[in-house]
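Example S7 (structure tokens).
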């Protein structure tokens, strides 16, 4: 609906500009043909309207007929030939109108310039007018093509983001169900509690995650619930530290489930079943710049361990490239002793791509 209103507004504005320009063009001679008594010499005015009338005919014949039906169909030679014949014919009519109906008396018997000079002058002016018509129609066509190209890119990007979200949701759910399945074997009570926590996460995924951007405070709440779910599973040998330095009601827009894949990765590769482990998660916001720092003990999986496919981190990279091009920095490193893994993701949320669905 909004898009249609904008189109109608631009269309009306274009018509208004045409009326104003031609109105000034036709009305301009009125300032120079007034008699000494301030009356208008309408005979002189009619003579002066020959030129703007001819320009108007050439302009709009090209604008509505020759350009869209001949030039835009790649018949350039035919377009030039028809315009040449049309302009020659119109120049001839201009001379007839001027010489026959409004002859100019030569009271001083001065030699008149040859007629071909007037023909060349008129034809040059009409050719310029036709060229102006072509330039305007080409600019409108280029603008429309550019808008269509942007809409196509936007639609393709939205489709790709939707596809990534559709892949991420089952991936996240699978990992969480694996965690609950592991709990059932040794602690039924914790497994029941985990199912309750999972219901909170699913509510967020089913409803809020359908948007391209969500308020930061909602995303942080989701992350808190996920971490609490993971605390139920891990042993006392795992130390989990969290710090969320953001405003409690922060409405800063952020792409949903970006950080959760990094946190999943920390729990997947940062916990040892036999040794002490740690996970440190810090998310802060400063001047619309959001930083997520995750540090964890590093226990890389063996080649025989197929529990994780690595799809989560790859999706994070793709979504960052689409939603925050040139507006994010993601650094990942392993300490020199190989015992600590660090992931630092910084996002400039002021550069969010503005994906707005147009109502039809």
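Recovered sequence:
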């Amino acid at each position: 609906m909004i898009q249609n209103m904008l189109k109608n507004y631009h269309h009306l504005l274009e018509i208004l500009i045409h009326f104003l320009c031609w109105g000034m063009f036709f009305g301009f001679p009125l300032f120079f043909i007034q008699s000494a008594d301030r009356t208008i010499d309408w005979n002189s005015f009619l003579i002066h309207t020959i030129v703007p009338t001819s320009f108007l005919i050439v302009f709009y014949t090209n604008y509505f007929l020759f350009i869209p039906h001949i030039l835009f169909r790649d018949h350039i030679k035919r377009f030039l030939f028809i315009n040449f014949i049309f302009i020659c014919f119109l120049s001839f009519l201009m001379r007839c109108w001027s010489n026959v109906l409004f002859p100019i008396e030569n009271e001083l018997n001065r030699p008149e310039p040859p007629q071909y000079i007037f023909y060349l002058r008129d034809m040059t002016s009409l050719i310029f007018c036709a060229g102006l018509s072509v330039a305007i129609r080409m600019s409108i066509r280029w603008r429309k093509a550019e808008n269509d190209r942007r809409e196509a890119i936007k639609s393709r990007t939205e489709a790709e983001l939707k596809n990534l979200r559709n892949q991420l949701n089952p991936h996240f759910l699978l990992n969480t169900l694996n965690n609950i399945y592991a709990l059932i074997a040794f602690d039924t009570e914790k497994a029941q509690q985990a199912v309750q926590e999972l219901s909170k996460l699913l509510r967020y995924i089913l409803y809020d995650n359908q948007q391209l951007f969500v308020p930061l405070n909602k995303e942080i709440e989701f992350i808190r619930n996920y971490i609490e779910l993971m605390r139920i599973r891990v042993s006392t040998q795992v130390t989990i530290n969290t710090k969320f330095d953001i405003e409690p009601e922060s409405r800063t827009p952020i792409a949903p489930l970006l950080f959760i894949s990094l946190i999943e990765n920390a729990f997947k590769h940062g916990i040892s079943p036999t040794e002490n482990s740690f996970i440190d998660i810090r998310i802060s916001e400063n001047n619309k710049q959001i930083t997520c720092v995750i540090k964890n003990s590093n226990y890389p999986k063996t080649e025989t361990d197929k529990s994780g496919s690595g799809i989560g981190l790859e999706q994070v990279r793709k979504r960052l490239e689409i939603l925050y091009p040139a507006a994010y920095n993601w650094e990942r490193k392993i300490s020199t002793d190989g015992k600590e893994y660090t992931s630092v993701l910084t996002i400039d949320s002021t550069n969010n791509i503005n994906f707005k669905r147009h109502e039809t």
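Notes on this example. Residues 154 and 356 are 9 Å apart (CA to CA).
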